[in-house]
Structure formats: structure tokens, C-alpha cells
Amino acid sequence: xxxxxxxxxxxxxxxxxxxxxxxxxxxxxxxxxxxxxxxxxxxxxxxxxxxxxxxxxxxxxxxxxxxxxxxxxxxxxxxxxxxxxxxxxxxxxxxxxxxxxxxxxxxxxxxxxxxxxxxxxxxxxxxxxxxxxxxxxxxxxxxxxxxxxxxxxxxxxxxxxxxxxxxxxxxxxxxxxxxxxxxxxxxxxxxxxxxxxxxxxxxxxx
Length: 206
Fold this sequence. Notes:
Layout: H1 2-16, H2 20-35, H3 38-41, E1 45-47, H4 59-67, E2 73-79, E3 87-91, E4 98-100, E5 106-108, E6 123-127, E7 130-131, E8 137-138, H5 144-148, E9 160-161, E10 164-165, E11 168-172, E12 193-195, E13 200-202
Parallel strand pairs: 1-2, 1-6, 6-11, 11-12
Antiparallel strand pairs: 2-3, 4-5, 7-8, 9-10, 12-13
Helix pairs in contact: 2-4
């Protein structure tokens, strides 16, 4: 656990050290790469996040979803008001009102009518603190995604759970967040793909 905490601190400092231009370039390149993912193009409901702490900014991609002629819905995670340590997903549009949560991260105002059940998300874009070529991921340490997405745990090369199709989980990161190997915890939820400004790592069958 200490090794993960030290690595998390180092990688967070590295991504915060990128220049504004580097952040903008990364956001544009990743938006372009995401638009080429076949399973994303065929998805109806896509969940993502709003930038915080030097993460890759998804604004360019989100705006392209809003402008798409296809009927696509975008959703954002909010801290679950009842299940502590879990996330709840709400629809996100140009007109959504945002508030800051206890971590100072913007999220949509809670409204029951805007709830998007996580099992209805076709793709979930997740911010990474670190990753390796084997698809192991390092998050912020709160375990929110791991708890919320524990139902997606599956056998290798299987995309099903309880007879249904699991959402595709795509990690988003800067290239400098790659490490040779990450210490893995048993609760870590595996990713289907990782997208950086320079490449796309496809970790499971498309």
C-alpha cells in the first residue's frame, strides 16, 4: 500500500507539472482517438468525468458527443448520497447545473430524474493516475470506481456478467503516467482499453 501511495504522489505531481499547452494538446489528441474506437461509436450511453488535479480534460470529446447527429447520452459520476464510497451516474448536458463536492470536483446537481443506472452505461471513461502495458491501473486511492464497478469483474476475455453485457471500461491518461509495472490489488477492476495522446492499448477483445 505504501508503494502505491508513493507512486501515486509522484505521478500526480508529474501530470500537474505539464504546461497548459501540453494539457490542451493531450485533450485534443485523446478526443480524436476516442472517436475512432469502434465500440464507442456504437454506444448510446457514455460516462466520463470532469477534469481535476491535472487529469486529461475530456471537454473536447464531450462537446463532440453533444454535437453528434447520433442519439448519444453523456453521464458524469457523483458521490453516492446513500451508499458511502460508491458513485452514482447522472446525465450531463450543456444545461446541467454543477456543484462542487467535498473533493472540490464539479458534479451535476443530484436529481432522481437524471440518474443513469451504471449497468446502462455502454462505456465508462475513467481517469488514471498511473498504468502499465498490462492494463493495471492506479487511481486516486479512494476506491470509488472499484466499488461501483465491482459487478464487472469477469473471467478473462469475457464481457458478460449475469447474462448481460458489461460496460466497456476505458482508462484515460497522459503518456507520462505510464510505469513499467504497477503493484496490483485484488479489488482493482480491469480495463478494456487505455487511451493516451500517443496510443490506444486494447486490452480485451473489441
